[in-house]
Amino acid sequence: MSTSSVSKGCFVFKPSGKKKMRELGLEDHFAEGCEGAENTAARFELCQQLWDKLKTDTEALQDELNRKVLDSLLDLTRKCSTTRQHSDWASKMRASEIPTAALVLGVNVPDHDMTFQSLSELLQQSVTPHVASVQAKECGTLKHLMKRVLERLTGTAVDDEEEEEEGAEQTSTPLHKSSHCSLSTLCDWYNAKARKSSTGTPGKKRSSPTKDEHQQPPVVIIFKDLEAFNPRVLQNFILICSLYIERLPLMFIFGIATSPSTIQHMLPHSVSSLLCIELFQSLSCTQHLATVIDKLILTPQFPFKLNGKVMQVLISIFLYHDFSVRNFIKGVQLALLEHFHSQPLSVLCCKKKQALLNVTQLGHLDLERVRQLPSFKRYVERQEHQEQVSLLTDDGHLKEVCQRLIKDLRKYHKNYYPVLRCLHTLTSSLPRYPLGKQIRELHLICLEKNVSENEDYQSAMKLLKMLAKDELITLLQRCADILQSVKSKKMRTAHVQLEELLAKFKQLDSAAVETAPVVEENITSPVRNLQKKTDLFQLQKTLLEMNESRRSKKLSPFEVLRNDALEFIDGLVKSHLCPPESQTLNEACYYSSSATVRRHLNAAPRTSIQAALRTPYYYIQNDSLKTEDGSVSNAAPDICIAYKLHLECGRLINLFDWLEAYATVVSAAEGNDPDSDDYGKVDEVKHARFIQAVSELEFLGFIKSTKQKTDHVARLTWGGC
Amino acid sequence: MTALLQHPGYEDESLQRVAEQLPCREAQSAVLLSLMGQPQQYSYPSIFIYGHRASGKSHVMHVLLRELELPHATLSCVECVSGVLLFERVLLSLFGHEAAALLPRSASLSDFVRVYRQQCSLSPAEQTRFIVMEKAELLRDADANLLPALLRLQELVEDNVTVVLLSEIAWDKFRPNTGCFEPLLLHFPDYSKGELQQILSQDRHPSYSADFYSSYINILLGVFYSVCRDLRELRHLAALNFSKFCEPVAEGKVKETDTHKLWRNIEPHLKKAMQTVYLREVSSLQWEQMQQMEEKETGVVRGLSAHTHIELPYYSKFLLIAAYLASYNPARTDKRFFLKHHGKIKKTNFLKKNEKTSNHLLGPKPFPLDRLLAIFYSVVDNRVAPTASIFSQISSLVTLQLLAQVSHEDQLDAPKYKCAVSMDFICAISRTVNFDIVKYLYDFL
Ligand SMILES: Nc1ncnc2c1ncn2[C@@H]1O[C@H](COP(=O)(O)OP(=O)(O)O)[C@@H](O)[C@H]1O
Ligand SMILES: [Mg+2]
């Protein structure tokens, strides 16, 4: 197990994309080390367009998702500013509490910034100009908190003793002497503001009539990350604010990552009784991700695609590590950038018209690349001999074929997503979710390989056969609705077929009233019981029984029709849900290097340090350090040798033995005669080099000094070699 | 009462007003008045008043100083985060803006004394000046010389000034061990039930009779007196629930005098208030809304503490589980729990009787990072690379206050943590990842 100074830290990975794109001459950066330099400019442009679209789309989506919570929050703030003016008996007698909104946002802290950003913008637009957000890390003490709040509200720098101390006392009589950080300053400021807005600037005020004049806009303070605040600081701040609540219409918003009960953990009753806390719960991050995937990934609008593995990496980072939708999007961004950077054929990854145009502009080199694509090779193999020859030799012909292939790829996508949704609709409510509960799970299965060959798919189909009639009909109806809105020839015919089937089901309904409806009952009901059963064995047994009982009976008209319907669905799945790898030219649109994404987004610092120590030739690009058996060469940097030697030791390492071993290795590298007296002797230089290597290892967290034995150090890592 | 009504040097009228506003605090105000003496006479240098929250300390001081029109400065020690702010406030209230502006920017105590002397030589005191410091217990955390200086400020500035300290903590817990000037101590005892009744009954609603309101207060105190004696809080609760109390009267169902019926109507409601609004589980705004629609839908309101569920990323859950195990299991038992072939660990040795079951009573113990990770890797079901995100999740858990960092933040080498979640919480978390945590807890073996 590891423990060390370095490996403890947090390594924040900043995706290179955004930065690269905003800097001057990014295009040159992009072109650097780019494969297939001819069309970098075009690719860069495409990449940027796609990213801009992705970005605006996600932002719009996020705004929409947050709208409900934010709206109710805005309502509260408005209510606060109006109820304050009441002067009936009850409100006079009541202790004046500070209105507080507890906004529960979930543990995906990186995503919160955006929410707060839009929240404070909304507040400023529609409720009050006085909004200040503070973060725990800038408010370690009460004084800092007060200062930040004042600064952000008044928009001016507040005088600070510390700064002044550094400023060498040259300004002995500053102008705004009384602008010490205290709420009374804020009160004065607020009153001055209120007076100004009620008397002055009549021209601007005309639009909002007299109603506004009595209303005091509240002063909203947003604590972005409540849990991270020092409880004492927060308590004192609230105590102070409550002293001024009569004079200053304050209001708090607490951003909570965990659960609202933390408020009670952080604030004693004497403090929480000064607040009037309303709870607001935002959408959970898993739902958020589901919407993002649904709206941005599972759509043919966006030509750039992730293959199964990359998708898997991004989703598992989300589920296992951070729950952050923002990081997920950044992952997509990274993949986007990498794709356009490393795949010359990515010029074809764009809107249809442009892609077709770009095909005509492909150079000979690019066409050779097309010929090298695995998917294209497979395509060629399927052609007749004559065609094969012309594909491989005739550039003009290849271009034509490419145009057709691009169109095919587009059609594939157009059909893939609706069918995927249909299949998900049908299977997502089955017991035990054989094909997953979320559509992204089904999508991953489909990306991986042919779903129809999947065992789970078979069992899902079997379960579907056991659905009661009305259940099946509603599901099919929903599928029909999905297909209806798709603009594709194939889907349109599929929709017509499905509607016909549904019509037949309905006819059956009216017919069945006359004939015996009893027969169906015992066949269709078991699936209801199945829902309850959790035991797999039981499930299989019932399935088997039902199969047998069915075989022995003659099929009822409903069963015949149901089988038709399911066969129809099966047909759709088989023809449209094949994995993208099977599509020719998929490499142009699909990004597949999951290892790159993983390495960038989920860095393993210790592993890379160890790799660097073990394979220095690779890192310092010196092939002379390479050895046949892969071990570390004698001539490697000192730290590599020391590291190598320390791997052979136990928990405690005797420094002297280590030094001796090191000296021997280094002497061998120097080419000294093994029989001479000096060989392996420790001279001053070697000693110094050794000490340096050891302290470097200590710095990297591989060893540390121990109190058990003074001339020993303790090893901190195990394995890894 | 009579003692209050006549006092040399003050007008009878204002004394009358004071007496009206300070019911049940006659004795204390009389003592204070006699300490203050006549306005122009020097008073005792420092007075220390202590008593529980809402025992009327601030109220009494405020009423006295306002009604008797004495020059004073009132400030709260919470607000004066630094000495400078305190000095500035005092000068501002006693001598005005110009005086406060004379203080240098990072003023020390001696600067304050200098400016004060200079100012009071310009405007000598005709009446005793009072400096009232609220929440004086916070002065203990301030500069060591601030409190002793304030206690003998009269002597330092050579002015007719008295410092009044208001505190919820007795003087014994205050006294600096180096010794200092002893202030006069004055205790404000808690209000008795009868006194509370008398004070609260004064706020009667203008459209109802005094008796009616008084009977309401009586019922209210019957419910709440056992849990809450805080006057401010009681007044708040009274205001919140009064509309419910008058409801039957307003609807004409019950007469104002039918106390029993009124009691039957309000008592369950107040009981409910005790578990909700009083604990701030439900905000007063929500409470009022609930009252209005209660008839139609008595939907179960979930208080703040009912929301304890937290969604965490998969590995964070396991890190938290590992932290819990590390906090509540003795380190020497790790081998037994997490090593497949733990060889011979003698049963008798392993189970030390007195140690058992006590771990949960003793609370979480700190553990080093490597132990956390060692346990984490053995409880999590698949191989996990030691990536940066695992480490940043630990930091996140600390910021979310689910883990507590015991060692100092700057200590990069072998940091120590404690698990800060409850047994219920961790059991709920473990259930979501199908991990039977009880099997791994030494206490439950
Ligand atoms: N004797 C009293 N008569 C009327 N109101 C009182 C009395 N004592 C306290 N109060 C009220 O109770 C509340 C709390 O009193 P306060 O003086 O602030 O308590 P303390 O300073 O001891 O914490 C104030 O709103 C005050 O008006
Ligand atoms: Mg007080």
From TrEMBL, chain A:
GO terms for biological process: DNA replication initiation. It is found in: Nucleus. The keyword Transport does not apply. The keyword Cytoplasm does not apply. Residues 360-593 form the Origin recognition complex subunit 3 insertion domain. Residues 169-180 have a biased composition (Polar residues). Keywords: DNA replication, DNA-binding, Nucleus, Phosphoprotein. InterPro entries: ORC3, ORC3_ins, ORC3_N, ORC_WH_C. Residues 155-180 are annotated as: Disordered. GO terms for cellular component: DNA replication preinitiation complex; nuclear origin of replication recognition complex; nuclear pre-replicative complex. Component of ORC, a complex composed of at least 6 subunits: ORC1, ORC2, ORC3, ORC4, ORC5 and ORC6. ORC is regulated in a cell-cycle dependent manner. It is sequentially assembled at the exit from anaphase of mitosis and disassembled as cells enter S phase. Component of the origin recognition complex (ORC) that binds origins of replication. DNA-binding is ATP-dependent. The specific DNA sequences that define origins of replication have not been identified yet. ORC is required to assemble the pre-replication complex necessary to initiate DNA replication. Binds histone H3 and H4 trimethylation marks H3K9me3, H3K27me3 and H4K20me3. This is Origin recognition complex subunit 3. The lineage of its organism: Eukaryota, Metazoa, Chordata, Craniata, Vertebrata.
Automatic annotation (TrEMBL), chain B:
Keywords: ATP-binding, DNA replication, Nucleotide-binding, Nucleus. It is found in: Nucleus. It comes from the Eukaryota. Pfam families: AAA_16, ORC5_C, ORC5_lid. One of its GO terms (cellular component) is nuclear origin of replication recognition complex. Residues 21-164 form the Orc1-like AAA ATPase domain. Residues 312-441 form the Origin recognition complex subunit 5 C-terminal domain. The keyword Lipoprotein does not apply. GO terms for biological process: DNA replication initiation. Residues 213-280 form the ORC5 lid domain. One of its GO terms (molecular function) is ATP binding. Component of the origin recognition complex (ORC) that binds origins of replication. DNA-binding is ATP-dependent. The specific DNA sequences that define origins of replication have not been identified yet. ORC is required to assemble the pre-replication complex necessary to initiate DNA replication. Component of ORC, a complex composed of at least 6 subunits: ORC1, ORC2, ORC3, ORC4, ORC5 and ORC6. ORC is regulated in a cell-cycle dependent manner. It is sequentially assembled at the exit from anaphase of mitosis and disassembled as cells enter S phase. Belongs to the ORC5 family. This is Origin recognition complex subunit 5. It comes from Scophthalmus maximus.
